Amino acid sequence: MPELPETETIARDLDRELAGVRIVGVRVTRPDVLRDVRPAELARRLTGAAIERSWRRAKLVVIDVSTGDRVLVQPRFTGALLIDGGALAERERRYSTVALELNDGRSLHYRDIRRLGTVSLVTSERFALIDAALGVEPLDPAFTGEHLSVLLRGRRQAIKKVLMDQRIVAGIGNIYANEALWRADIDPSREAGRVDPQEASALRDAIVDVLTESIAHRGTSFRDYRDASGTRGGFAERLAVYGRAGEACPRCGRRLIGTHAIDGRMTVLCARCQK
């Protein structure tokens, strides 16, 4: 599932390529991906609007248009926002669910093979409610070690589960929770409230570092994630633990353990390094 680095990469691509471009048509071929809006209403409210800005909040790609509405795309497992200048592969077009036709001749497709992601059109008031329900952004300067320590205080759930709770910290999913906890030497199953302030500071730094590094490599692709040009992310080969159960720990050499016991998701850890 695209997490913060992947959606940040997509949003930056869209902002660079599409700011100022006008939407001249809307095609919805798979309406089951839509939320908060029907196909006819989506077309009516977007046609003629200019794209002002594309950005990210949590795991959402947010597209601001000149009417004051916002398009929210949550790619989930197999979704991608792809800019088509005429050379988009047919295998990608085949799974297009929503396409915005642009006044420069290009199109923006929301491609989703399994159609588990969503496309919403919301007013600024509706977006404010969505935004208020999300936690702190880990790349925001306000996200300090002290802030994280306060967020963890008194919580009895596993630290990995807390990091992935979008109401607490926004944008972190399974890949980067595994990676950050390994970098910080913290057992993913440990009670969040038992992470002391010094460890919280180290964990904050590990979160910021791994997210920043992944963005620099345009995210992690295993199967379906693509950036806005259809290119795979390059961070997968730099993952230390995620997807590497049974291999040697890069730090101590002990065999990495894979388990679903913590939160039902695959967790990979080193029992020697992470306490």
Describe the structure.
The model has no long low-confidence stretch (mean pLDDT 96). The chain folds into two domains: 4-132, MutM-like, N-terminal (N-terminal domain of MutM-like DNA repair proteins); 145-269, Helicase, Ruva Protein, domain 3, CATH 1.10.8.50. It is built from eight helices and eleven strands. Strand 7 (96-102) and strand 8 (107-112) form a beta hairpin. The strands form three sheets. A five-stranded mixed β-sheet has the order 2-9-5-4-3, sandwiched between helices. A four-stranded antiparallel β-sheet has the order 1-7-8-6, with helices on one face. The protein has a two-stranded antiparallel sheet with strand order 10-11. By secondary structure, the chain is α+β, with helices and mostly antiparallel strands. 41% of the residues are buried.
Summarize the structure.
The protein is of the alpha+beta class and about 280 residues long.
Notable traits:
8 helices; 20% strand; alpha+beta; 29% helix; 275 residues; Helicase, Ruva Protein, domain 3; five-stranded mixed beta sheet; four-stranded antiparallel beta sheet; N-terminal domain of MutM-like DNA repair proteins; single chain
Average residue pLDDT: 96
Distance between the termini: 27 Å
Strand order in the largest sheet = 2-9-5-4-3
Q: What coarse outline follows from CA principal-axis ratios?
A: globular
**Full CATH superfamily name of the largest domain:** MutM-like, N-terminal
